[in-house]
Amino acid sequence: MRPGQKRFAGKNVLVLGLARSGLAVARLLHSEGAFVTVNDRKPRQECPEAESLEREGIQVVLGGHPERLIHPEVDLLVKNPGIPYHIPLITRAQDLGIPVVTEVEVAYLLTEANIIGITGSNGKTTTTSLVGRMLSKGQLPSRVAGNIGMALSELAPAMREEEWLICELSSFQLKGTHKFHPRIGAILNVVPAHLDYHGSMEDYRESKKKLFSNQQIGDVAVLNWDSAECRAIAQELKGEIWWFSRQEIVNRGVMVDEGWVVAHLPNHKESVRILPISSVPLPGVHKENALAAATIALAAGCPVEAVREELATFTGVEHRLEHVATIDGVRYYNDSKATNPKAAAAALESFEDPVVLIAGGLDRGIDFRELTSVFQKRLKGIVAFGQTADTLLNRAKEAGVSLRKQVADIAEAVDCACQMAEPGDVVLLSPACASWDMYTSFEERGSMFKQAVHRL
């Protein structure tokens, strides 16, 4: 198996970025006998972790990315997923033939666990969380990590061969993998996202596809039949393909058939009816995530009864169409995780009642024209903030939305939306943008939204 010998012993490793995954992988590599240097551009006063790393014997360089850190004796560069590849340290490493990976790759090389890798443009966290609950209910030993919760490096080395490590993975993380090999890999959907980082849709797509690069016969690839991108990807794969679909009957996997969630399983002569789709409490598009989670869990050997019980009781995770409160007949929902137009459109389509939308954030050059039709169908009003406020308000104007307001921040947006809404309406934070122009994360943005709602 992968672990055993100290494969990094004596290696010179540069860890770029002092976020949680950087800290975890630095400590892991140090424990493996590597000579580790951690580098972050933030000044020392903003890196309280530096002192403890230095006490442990790890070199820390802060306040910039000095080029002297990359030289021919460096054996490996482990980068924070969000750091772009065009910075000089990384381009110099590539020129010298130094492998550039993300923490996911290192954790994989040092674990015995069977890995489930889950990626997609939207729905990763909901699906990953639900798979974790299903496997736990089915008494399959498992842990959840990756782009959700703990870094892989915090869990992977201690996990055993009989355990499942369920990983939520971003395109940023997958781009920096080479040998990473999940027993089960799932792509939920592929729509344009993070193009400012990837530079092109092709690079974004190829980064997602790296999830399957090392799969072989006997591995499982779970894909969305309702996505043309996923159907195209399936033609290139070596693993056994399991599908999920809300629209079609599939020969292996989970689908909706005559109002029921139904599974076609390789070891069953007949299809298995799990429960009515109306009994799945997840709202709107997240029912698709429920089908994906069921497919992944069943492929891992989870009992049908455990899948059924979790499908019937799981109501979602924080910041994903999360019901915050109902105040004076108006329902408030936090969908701060909707960081692209496709996710925001799906959220809007989840409601039949009039919606006052709160949206806006980091400008990645998107024109939001794909939202015009759903604005026309669903919006009663829009409150926009951040770098993209003007563009979103223009799209709403084109859609004939008369109630439009630009505000300074989330707190003001909630007050303004409250004034626009009437009993029976929905106020929805679904920004369609990343948060980084104003907030450190979508979690911070969503939490501030919830605080503002609770102050009404």
TrEMBL record:
Query: Top EC class per UniProt?
Result: ligase
The protein in question is named: UDP-N-acetylmuramoylalanine--D-glutamate ligase
Instruction: List the taxonomic lineage.
Output: Bacteria, Bacillati, Bacillota, Bacilli, Bacillales
One function term, GO molecular function aspect: UDP-N-acetylmuramoylalanine-D-glutamate ligase activity
| Origin superkingdom | Bacteria
Read off the HAMAP family from this record: MurD
Q: Which E.C. number(s) belong to this protein?
A: 6.3.2.9
The catalysed reaction is:
UDP-N-acetyl-alpha-D-muramoyl-L-alanine + D-glutamate + ATP = UDP-N-acetyl-alpha-D-muramoyl-L-alanyl-D-glutamate + ADP + phosphate + H(+)
Domain (Mur ligase C-terminal): residue spans on this chain:
319-433
| GO BP terms, alphabetized | cell division; cell wall organization; peptidoglycan biosynthetic process; regulation of cell shape
Pathway given in the UniProt record: Cell wall biogenesis; peptidoglycan biosynthesis
Please explain the role this protein plays, according to its UniProt record.
Cell wall formation. Catalyzes the addition of glutamate to the nucleotide precursor UDP-N-acetylmuramoyl-L-alanine (UMA).
State the gene name recorded for this protein.
murD
Where is it mainly found?
Answer: cytoplasm
Mind telling me which GO cellular component terms the entry cites?
Answer: cytoplasm
